[in-house]
Design brief:
It contains 12 helices and 5 strands. The protein is mainly α and about 350 residues long. The strands form 2 sheets. It has a 3-stranded parallel β-sheet. Strands 4-5 form a two-stranded parallel sheet. The chain binds tryptophan (TRP).
Length: about 350
Amino acid sequence: MQKPIIYSGMQATGNLHIGNWLGAARNWAKLSSDYNCLFCVVDLHSLTVRQDPKVLRQSARNVLAWYIALGLDPAKNILYFQSHVAAHAELAWILNCYSYMGELGRMTQFKEKSAKSEENINAGLFTYPVLQAADILLYRTNLVPVGDDQRQHLELTRDVAQRFNQVYGDIFTVPEAYIPPVGARIMALQNPEKKMSKSDDNQANCIFLSDEPGVIIKKFKRAVTDSDNQIRHAPDKPGISNLLTIYSCVTGRTMDEGVGDFSQSGYGDFKVKVGEAVLEALIPYRAEFERLITDTAYLDGVIADGADKAQAMATSTLIKVKEAVGLPICIKEGVSYERS
Ligand code: TRP
């Protein structure tokens, strides 16, 4: 029997941080034996914000190298760049014609991003979720591991898929959210009420995987805590709880063991120890990243191979869609249609 398909992606911009690692990639790496997995670097999505071309190209490559370094084996997962498979942009156009201004205007992320970048509220920002729907639907995805912030986009994907299927029959698989059995949600160090995010303006909120050791310790030292000097995991202690979660994730200690480890510590000592534990856990991953990013031939090979595999899957869905909506058939695509 065919394994269910899992699809997810990360933006091509910025550096990956420990939230991307502990909250996402680390869980993704466990999926490849039970699922067919595709993990994309969504570089087209990154164009909704002005990018420096050189920086974008390098950071897209870095994200893909981090995927591998963090345990996504390219022999067991399809790892690729969105822009290498033209079908994403093509399907996004078609789906734009089945998405409504009203529903896109209601997207929280669009509202937040357009409030943040008033000088550049471009159409791409508005149709961002349609491109995301195309990403997911092209691969007949069953399950999408996404954080809470992307739930709304997944709902939209489902709505568009169902709307399309109602008119044209069973073309798309309607995807569902994948909730990992154990999921860590890593919060911003200076503001533990919100998720750690690459696009955060305050760099002190994020521990990047490539931060210098001294910087990592400094950021932990400055992490927001509270004033009662008790180290425990509780909803009224978001800062301390976040640090304990990070500690537990990187050491493999349970939450109770973690709390026990610090029963004699003050906040200052606790924060440094969490930082040191993170640094220690990162050592092998950082070494692997360095190895990969300098092995140009290997990485180029993985990238080309991923693009080929993704393209083959995507093309077959796109052809079905084009046929369904009545676009003229291209004999170069080498597929014979049953003409109705
Ligand atoms: N919008 C997602 C984010 O910002 C990234 C993304 C793009 C994605 N396409 C996707 C995630 C498809 C899951 C599936 O995190």
